[in-house]
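Quick one:
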Amino acid sequence: MTKVNTLSKLVLICGLATATLGAGSVLAKGDMHKKQGHSQARFLLSERAADKLNLTDEQQTKLKTIFEAQKTQMKALKGDDKEARKAEREAHKAKMDALLSAATFDENAAKEILNERHEKGVEFGLIKLKTQHQVMQVLNAEQQEKFKKMQKRMGKKKQRKQKD
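Output:
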């Protein structure tokens, strides 16, 4: 194998590794938002939120129903079978290994591999956005404004904690 050929493969592998890590970070970010969504649900269902936002009993009940539905949808999308998820990860790794060890680079196969991971992240994101929309529909205009301000403050607090 010539030096140029070896160098080309090395550059290709680095590029794919970067793309894979980038896709992984997008999915990891999805997990971060998942935790944020969880804390949002925990906050909105708390007595503190009920007091600060002046939530009625009916609103609290609706919010609880919304977040329970979200949890069910997320669980269904994630799947309960750990072995199946492990097999899925191993299959993904096998596809990546096959792509990287092939004599020529198959761009379509690479795109397909990356899209498979991305699609699931999109589904999780869609569920989260629908939930946020439903929450905003439960709150009146004044409560929405208060909640947006609270979210801004909580976001700034999290950023400061992450920097420390």
